[in-house]
Amino acid sequence: MKKLSRYRRHRMAAPALFIIALITVGTGFGIASALPNAQSTTATSQSTLIAEGKQIFARGCSSCHGLNAEGGSIAPSLIGVGAASVDFQVGTGRMPMADMSQQAMRKKPVYNAEQIAALAAYVASTAPGPATVDGANLNYERDGNTAQGGALFRTNCAMCHNFAGQGGALTNGKYAPTLMGVDPQYIYEAMITGPQSMPKFSDKTLTPTEKLSIIKWLKAAQNEPNLGGGSLGRVGPVTEGLLAWVFGLGLLIGIAVWLASKAR
């Protein structure tokens, strides 16, 4: 204590304490002001993204979906569909469409990833909806269960997409596309947005873990080897029956012709 008291009486003690106080106050002020600045920067960046998305929407989407995404005579409203719907439809090339009378088909995307993100941000700003899914965070290998996913798929999806996920025909010329080779991000977004004829699967209908289990089963089915020979497209008994009918009937006709020629 005597040693400390001696330092307090030193002629440089007061200036040193003053400098330390200034440094402490300045550091505290800098930390306090950094948080609002970071939030302001984030808000500005989001506003810029939305503005860019609005411009892209006006050029490529408004002719069908309306100037304010309110919909039109040939295209539905996009208010409230969320960023996930835009990411799925535009990211898979289904939108924009050249002919709205047909079912949207998967093709090469028209816009790049940055433009798709801007479009999604703009549509999401019109009303709340499902957010875009980050494919990097869909750890279906860790969180999913293959057996559970197969059971859920057969219960909820097989009637349209085929028991092996190969796709199938629907009414009025529509069809359920194959799920083989589809990115997990788009499979998940399809389940939460319900594109075209597909129903929405909310978290109350299928929990996030159950959705991951379905994805895990689909990827397992996609990579499953064909130990019994040719897969024949895995589209079920139609292909197998056609093959048996063509080759089986052909064989029977050949035998009949051979027997008839021998009988002469």
What does this structure look like?
With 264 residues, the chain is mainly α. Among the domains are: 42-132, Cytochrome c-like domain (Cytochrome Bc1 Complex, Chain D, domain 2); 133-225, Cytochrome c-like domain (Cytochrome Bc1 Complex, Chain D, domain 2), CATH 1.10.760.10. The chain contains eleven helices and two strands; from the N terminus they run ααααααααββααα. It has helices at 2-8, 13-60, 62-65, 82-91, 113-126, 140-143, 146-156, 158-161, 184-193, 208-222, 237-263, and strands at 168-169, 175-176. It has a two-stranded antiparallel sheet. Strand 1 (168-169) and strand 2 form a beta hairpin. Helix 2 packs across helix 5 (113-126). The protein is elongated, with a radius of gyration of 31 Å. The chain starts with a helix and ends with a helix. 25% of the residues are buried. The mean pLDDT is 84.
Shape: elongated
Order of helices and strands: HHHHHHHHEEHHH
Amount of beta strand: under 5%
- The CATH homologous superfamily name of the domain at 133-225 equals Cytochrome c-like domain
Widest sheet: strand ordering:
1-2
Provide the helix percentage: 55-70%
How many angstroms does the end-to-end distance come to? 131 Å
Radius of gyration: 31 Å
SSE-based structural type: mainly alpha
So, CATH architecture of the domain at 133-225?
Orthogonal Bundle
CATH class placement of the domain at 133-225: Mainly Alpha
By oligomeric state, this entry counts as single chain
Mean pLDDT: 84
Low-confidence spans: pLDDT under 50, at least 5 residues?
Answer: none
| Main sheet characteristics | 2 strands, antiparallel
Number of strands: 2
Number of helices: 11
**CATH-defined fold name of the domain at 133-225:** Cytochrome Bc1 Complex, Chain D, domain 2
